[in-house]
Amino acid sequence: MKIIISILLCALLAYAVGIYGNLPWWSFVVTNLIVAIVVPQKSFHSFLIGFLSIGLLWAGLAIGIDQGNHHILSTKVATILPLKGSYISLLVLTSFVGALLGGLASLTGSFIKMK
Amino acid sequence: MRLLPFLASAVVTIGLVSLLNTQLSIGPTKSPKLGYFLSPQHGFWKNAEKINTNFDANLVAGELKGNVDVYIDDRLVPHIYADHDEDAYFVQGYLHAKFRLWQMDFQTRVASGRLSEIAGADKLSIDRFFRRLGMVYGAEQTEVKINETNPVMKATVDAYTAGVNAYMKQLAPEDLPFEFKLMNYEPELWTPKKTYLFLMFMSYDLTGRSAALDLQLTNTRDFLGYDLFNKLYTNTQDSLDPIIPKGTVYQKPSIVPIKPANSDTNYLMHKNTLAYLTQPSPEAPDKNNGSNNWAVAGSKTKSGRPILCSDPHLGLNLPSLWYEVQITTPTHSTYGASFPGSPAVIIGFNDSLAWGVTNAGRDVLDYYELKFKDSSQNEYWFNGEWKSVTKRKEVIKVKDSADVVEEIAMTYWGPAMFDAHYQNPQSKGRNLAVKWTAFTPSSGVEAFYQLNRAKNYDDYIHAISLWTCPGQNFVLATKSGDIAIKQQGAFVARWERQGDFIMPGQDSTYDWQGIIPNNENPTIKNPIRGFVSSANQKPTDASYPYYLGTASYFPLYRGISVNKHLANMNQITAQDMQALQTNNDNVFAATARPALMKYVQLDKLSPDAKRMVAEMTNWNLVNEEHAKGITVFKIIWDSVAQAVWGDELAGSDLALTKPDDFVLLDQMLKDSNWSIADDIRTKDKVENFKDQVTLGVENATLKLLELEKENKLEWALFKATRVLHLTKIPALSRMNLPIGGGMNIINATTENHGPSWRMIVHLTDEIEAYGLYPGGQSGNPGSPYYDSFVDYWAAGKYYRLLFLSKENLIKNERTKWHIQFKTAS
Description:
The complex is a heterodimer.
Chain A: H1 2-19, H2 27-38, H3 43-68, H4 72-80, H5 87-113
Chain B: H1 3-20, E1 25-26, E2 29-30, H2 34-38, E3 57-60, E4 68-73, E5 78-82, H3 85-111, H4 116-119, H5 124-132, H6 135-149, H7 151-169, H8 178-183, H9 192-207, H10 209-224, H11 226-232, H12 263-268, E6 290-296, E7 307-315, E8 317-318, E9 323-329, E10 332-338, E11 347-350, E12 353-359, E13 365-369, E14 379-382, E15 385-388, E16 390-398, E17 401-410, E18 416-418, E19 432-436, H13 445-453, H14 457-464, E20 472-478, E21 483-488, E22 503-504, E23 523-525, E24 531-534, H15 557-568, H16 574-581, H17 587-599, H18 607-617, H19 629-649, H20 661-670, H21 689-709, H22 715-719, E25 721-725, E26 734-737, E27 753-755, E28 758-762, E29 768-772, H23 790-794, E30 799-800, H24 806-811, E31 815-822
Parallel strand pairs in B: 3-31, 5-9, 8-25, 13-22
Antiparallel strand pairs in B: 1-2, 4-5, 4-31, 6-7, 6-24, 7-27, 7-28, 9-10, 10-11, 11-12, 12-20, 13-19, 14-15, 16-17, 18-19, 20-21, 21-23, 25-26, 28-29, 29-30
C-alpha cells in the first residue's frame, strides 16, 4: 500500500513540476528524492517506486499524445534518433529514460534516511 | 545515512542528468539534449499536434487599432478581416509566427550568415560567404531607405514585426517549434531588418547565380581562349520565342552604353595566369530557378473573361516558402501566397485583378578586380590615385568556439568579397569587389503592397515601377479585360558582354553606364494573339537596344512549349489551364531526338545499345511518371554532349561551366561538320557528329544497363523528386514523389526543384481561383497540416480557393475556426 502511495505521490509531483516549462525537465529528480526521504523505503523498493512512477507517467503522457497525433511525429522522430521509424520503440525509450532517472533519484534519496 | 551508497547513487544520478542534458556529437551534427527532447512535458511530444485540434481563440493585443476577425478554412488558410490596414499586417505577422516561426528564424539566419551561431564551425563557410557577399549590408541599405523616406512601408513592416513578436512573447518554452528543440536553440524577437534580410535572400536566390557564374565563365574563357569560348557559349539562340513577340519595334534607347576602347585586349581576350588558393564555396542558387506565367484574354476563353496562371519554380522545401492568406480591409481584399517573413501577398489576386511573377534572369551582379596598395588592404588604386577603403566588421559567432571576424574593405564598387583572407578555387587569388543592384537602397517591398491594392492596368504599372531587385516578369489580367506582361527591375544598361566576366576595376572605365529607365523595360499589353506569357526566356529578340546578358541565364524550351500550346488553344476554361500548368510535353526532346537519330550509326551499335535506342524512339515525348524513354533520352543526350565537348573542357583544375544544351542542338541541326565535334585528343582522326553520337549512345548504354538493374529506368524513380525539410533531414522531408515533368517541361519538376506554388485565376465577376503548393500551412512536422498538399500537388490536382466577403465566408461550410483579436481597451 505504502509503495503504491509513494508511486502516486512521485508521479503527481513530477507531473506538477513539469507543467511549468520554465522549470528544468529534470525537476522530477528533486521531487522523487524528497519523496524518498519523507516516505522511507528499502533501497530496492525506493528504486522501484522511482522507476515505475516516472516510467508510467512518461509512458502515459506520451501514449496519450501519440494516440491523438496518429503517430505522425513519433514516426518521424523514431527515424531521426534512429529507431527504424518504430513509434513503439520511441515510447519505450521515452518511458525508460524517465524511469531510469526517476529510479536513481529515489534510490539516492533512500540512502539518506536508511539507518 | 549510508554514505558510500548515497555518494555512488548521487554521482550516477547527477551524471545521467548531465549526460541527458548535453548535446552529443554524432559525426558533424549534434544530438538534441535527449532527456529534454524526450520529456513528454517539455520536449518533442508537446509538438505532436492533436489530429482534430481546435484552432479557435480569443486574443487581446494592445497594439491593434481595432478588432480583427480571422476565419480559418479546412485547409488551414486564414482569412483576415480587419478595419485597419496595419492591423491586418499585425495579424499576418502573428499567424506567420504561429505556424512558421522556426522557418522564419532559420531563413533569416542563413541570409545574415548566422548559422554557425547555432550549428557550430561546420557552417562557417556558408556564413562567411553570405557576410562577404554583403547580404547584411544590403538589408541595412533597404532599412535606412524605408525608415527615412517611406512612412507607409515603415508602419506596415513595424506592424508586421509587432504581430510576430506578440506571438513570441506569449509562447511558453514547452511550445517552442520542434526544430528549436531538435537543434537546441531559442528564437529571438523579430525586427524589421529580418524582413529585409529575408527579401535580400530572395534577391540572392534569384539573381545570385552570377556570383558563381561570372567566375566560372571567366575561368572557362581563360582556359579556352575567347574565340573558342564564344563558339561554345554563344548568345545566339536560333529557336528563341521571346516574351515580347519577335518583330516588335523598340523605341530609341535613352542610354547608349559605350564599349571601352581596348576592351578587346583588356577585357574580352584577357587571359589570367594567377595561381589560386582553395576554400570551399557554398552551393550557388539553382540554375533551374525560374517559373511560368501567362494570361489569356477573353477572346480566347469560354467565359469571355481573362484567365491568369502563375507557377514560380523554386527549391521545393518543407516548410514551404509560401503561406496562403486572404487579407481584407476597407482599402482592399486580396488573396494569394505570402512569404513568412514579409507582409502582404506576393503572388495572388484581389477583387479587380490578378498578378504573377517569373524570374527575369538578367545579370545584375558583377565583379571588379581591385589592386590594393599593400597587405593592410587600406587603400586601392582607382582613377589614378590610391583611395582609402572603409572597413566593415562582420562578427560571426560560432557555437562552442571563438568568434570569427570578417573585415571587409568597402570600395567604390561595393564590398571586396574576395581578397587575401577569402579565396575559393574560382576566384583564383584575386581581389574582387561585388557590384550588385541588391545593394541599391530601394523600397521595392512597396511594389507588392501596391499590387495588393491595384485596381487596373495603370495601378499595376505604377506598383511594379517601384520594383528593383530581383528583376521579374510581372503578368497581369484584370476583370475589365486587360492582359499585360512587363519585365521590371533595375537592369543595367550594358554593352555587349559587359559583366559576363570579371571586369577591370582600377578605374571607372568599366563601370555601369546607367540603369535602363522603367519605360524602356520590355512591356506588352493586350496583344492581338490574345495571350501574354513568360518562362524565363530572353524577354526580346536582338532588336531590343540593350544587351541582356549571357544566354546561360535564359532557358529556351519551356517558353516555346507554353506559347505553342497557348496559340493553339481556344474556348479556354480554368480546367484547361490546370492541364497546361501540369503539362509534361518535352519540346526539347521533340527536336533533339530526330537530331540524334540523324547521326547515330545504328549498324555500329551493340545489341543493348540498339535496344535502348528503340526504347527512346518508341517514347511518346511526354515526361510521364512511368515513362522509360525520357530517362534513356536524357542519359544519351548528356553522354553525347560529354563526347562532343568533354575533350575541350578536360584538363582544367578550375571550376568551369558547361555549355548550354541549345548550343549543341542548334549546331546538330544546321552543321554536320561542326569543328567542336572533333575529339582534339585523337591527333590522327577527325571525328564528326556521327562518331560522337554513336559513341555517346554506347557510353550511355553502360549507365542505362546499371539503372535497369536497379529498376530505376522509370522517370519518377530515376528523378526521385523530393520536398526537402530546410535541414535536409530525410525523416522530415517527402522523398521519391510519384511525379513526371522535368527540365524544359512546363511542369518543371526536377529532383528538388519545381512549381512551388501553382495558381490559376479566372477573372469572372465572382473570381474563380485554384491553387496549391507542395507543402502545408503548418510548419510543424508534428501537424497533419505539415505536408497536407503534397500528394495532391504531385498528382496535378488543385484546390478551389475560398475568396469571399466576411458574411459569405462565415456561412461557408469549409470555414472551420475563428480567431478573434481584440484591442486592449
